[in-house]
Amino acid sequence: MAKHIHEIRDPIHSFIRLDSEERQVLDSRPFQRLRYIHQLALSYLVYPGATHRRFEHSLGVMELATRVFDVLTDRQNRHEQIRDLFPGGADQIAYWRRVLRMAALCHDIGHLPFSHAAEHELLPEGWDHEKLTVELIQSEEMQGIWSSLTPPLRAEHIAKLAVGPKKMKETFSVWEAILAEIIVGDAFGVDRIDYLLRDSYHSGVAYGQFDHYRLIDCLRILPKSQDSREPALGIQAGGLHTAEALLLARYFMYTQVYFHAIRRIYNIHLQDFMLAWLNSGGYPTDLDLHLDFTDNEVLAEIGRAAGSEEHSAHDAARRIINRDHFHVLYERNPIDIEQNPEATLAIYEAASDKYGSESVRRDSWKEKGEIVVFPVEGSDDRIVSSLEVSQVLKHIPPVAVDFVFISAEHLDAAKGWLEENRNDIIGSRINKEDNP
Prior knowledge:
Blueprint lengths: L4 E6 L3 E6 H7 L2 H4 L21 H20 L16 H17 L12 H4 L6 H9 L2 H9 L6 H9 L10 H11 L5 H14 L8 H7 E5 L7 E6 L3 H19 L2 H18 L8 H5 L3 H12 L7 H8 L5 E5 L2 H6 L3 H13 L4 E7 L8 E3 L5 E3 H4 L1 H4 L5 E7 L1 H27 L2
Parallel strand pairs: 4-7
Antiparallel strand pairs: 1-2, 3-4, 5-9, 6-9, 7-8
């Protein structure tokens, strides 16, 4: 007799279970492609264990989303002010539970090879991996699977929950918005929870670990404030420290792993390779071509390009294969920033003029710095803002990176040049801005 429930061993969640109908999604071409998309691009060149793929991450997101849904919809956990938010009847709850699971499973199927490494530069205007995800969820192949499930699922519902209202400009019901927040939310999104736990495990660092079991058990759908009936994903006061630990884990993982200087320059070399290889053609948004394009094809071409000086992407490929990456010439320094907020840009431009733009790269990114706010249910059942009860959340710095890199052949000379000219370079930039 065939098994109805299938168990998949996982190093983070022990077992992940899905039934035979859901396995159709697992076996589909869009999802199986994720076996060949690295979760952290070329990070394995810095952290040798970080060879995990989007495939297992997506399974983990499905597992966590299910756990959260079951906690939130438990009748004992429903806040009296918003009880009418929940769909009536067991059938409706079962429907949305299945929709959420499938949305979580498919939330990354639109990712380009090596995930985020060159997405913005390669895709046409108006496209990103979320748009590709929506297109695939609503494709003919996946529509056939959704309609065969019991009960049949609407592709539109799955797509909404998979990418959320920020990326899918359609009208969301309050219930749909809450369920999308379970997957992609800034505070408690299970996409974030899984990638922090999983990336920490595979990279061999402890920064991403926190008590996610306690966190999930304390999650609730709550009014945004004591006198509001507008719902939001929040937490009981007993789980506040785990929420703080989650957001601190994110900060530490970004500063220590995701923004590791050598990891970032390999992303830049990979981006340079992809741009030179694909040239003006860019990345294909045709779904069949997208599904045929994985890390395997890119790595094969990198190998060919590295061995051929005539290849348009030879230099970038050679740097990846031979580990001849650019090195840090300058890193954002608070002393310099106080003198000139654009100090890194000034040094980048001066270094490019001195040593040639082909030998210098800049990597700069800073999040908007919006503080994550969510409702907290106190022991007296009153609702307060997380910022009223947590000093930690108020003071988590925004994540930022700002490097200037230079090729190894110029590194020593450039360091001496920069030491001698740093103040003049930063000051001259200020004078340019004051006297255009």
